[in-house]
Amino acid sequence: DSLLVMEDVGKSYGNVDALRGVSMDVRGGEVTCVLGDNGAGKSTLIKIIAGLHAHTSGTMRVEGKETVFSSPREAQGRGIATVYQDLALAPLMSVWRNFFLGNEMRSGFGMNIAEMKRIAGEELQKMGIVIPDLDRPVGALSGGQRQCIAIARAIYFGAKVVILDEPTAALGVKQSGVVLKYISKMRDSGLGVVFITHNPHHAYLVGNHFIILKLGRVVLDAHRNELTLDQ
Ligand code: ADP
Ligand code: ADP
User: 10 Å Cβ neighbour count for 192?
Assistant: First the structure.
């Protein structure tokens, strides 16, 4: 099913057209990869989906309903989460505390520490991430594990579509592998994933659907089965 659809979306900043006529379809159980050089419009696309900017033309539909988000909170409330490169994790705080950080209101006041730890551990384990000591500060973990914690938190708090902003850009081969494996688990669990990346190899390892932006326009939109090596 389509969770998020953009039709002919444009965004201009004054007289700069950052996006022009962009259409895309994000489905549950698929990883939609968005590739493009600097200036292609990737950040602008993220900002529109995340509720930081409004598009200036075209339409966005979330689960069929035409939508313009007026804040990130509104986007989150509709099941759209964005995990930025800086992750919004507190490096000195424990894994379990980070898991609930910023969601204290939504997680209810009644939860005790043991319960929060149990949930954080279970949510991570479900997706193949085992962190033996959830009391460790997040800053002591690997970059790949940190990405996965930020993503797991978004999923636990209701994301159906997760936008990943260059999640492997700062990582080496091994840590990128941790994150890519996690992305494939997200896909298998039926989430809609938008994977923004500069790295075509990483995109190809996990992607079902590939969109290339260039100077604000979609120059390629292909599903995996449409890509062929023997043309
Ligand atoms: P990317 O993330 O792919 O590098 P951006 O979305 O940041 O691309 O930028 C797309 C275009 O929009 C670029 O030409 C950029 O200079 C311009 N742009 C981005 N943000 C702004 C802004 N706040 N004001 C004016 N121009 C902007
Ligand atoms: P907001 O509207 O959310 O306050 P802006 O659109 O002003 O944010 O800026 C958001 C980001 O876009 C910042 O990181 C800024 O550096 C970048 N940016 C702003 N203007 C431009 C521009 N002309 N070209 C490229 N990037 C820009």
Answer: 25
13 and 56 in contact (C-beta within 8 Å)? no
Can you read off the two tokens belonging to residue 65? 């309903």
Q: Residue 4 carries which side chain, given as an amino acid letter?
A: L
Q: How far apart are CA 31 and CA 132, in angstroms?
A: 29
Nearest ligand to the C-alpha of residue 44? Answer: 1
Tell me, using a 6 A CB cutoff, whether residue 192 lines ligand 1. no
Q: Which atom number of ligand 1 is nearest to the Cα of residue 45?
A: 6
Closest CA to 150 of 102, 88, 108, 204: 88
Q: What is the pLDDT at residue 128?
A: 86
Name the average pLDDT for the chain.
92
Q: What is the pLDDT of residues 4-42, one digit of tens each?
A: 999 999 999 999 999 999 999 999 999 999 999 999 999
- ipTM of predicted complex: 0.67
Helix axes 113-126, 143-156, angle to 10 degrees: 110
- Regarding the beta carbon of 197 and ligand 1, being less than 6 Å apart is answered no
Ligand nearest to the CA of 50: 2
The pick from 9, 13, 194 for probing ligand 1's pocket by mutation, whose C-beta has the most ligand atoms within 8 angstroms, reads 13
With b for 16 or more beta-carbon neighbours within 10 A and e for fewer, the 129-158 pattern comes to bebeebeeebeebebbbbbbbbbbbbbbbe
Please tell me if the CB atom of residue 212 comes closer than 6 angstroms to any atom of ligand 1. no
Is the distance from CB of 3 to CB of 48 less than 8 angstroms?
no
Quickly tell me which residue has 């069929």 as its tokens: 64
Residue of minimum CA distance from atom 27 in ligand 1: 13
Q: Which tokens belong to 90?
A: 């507190």
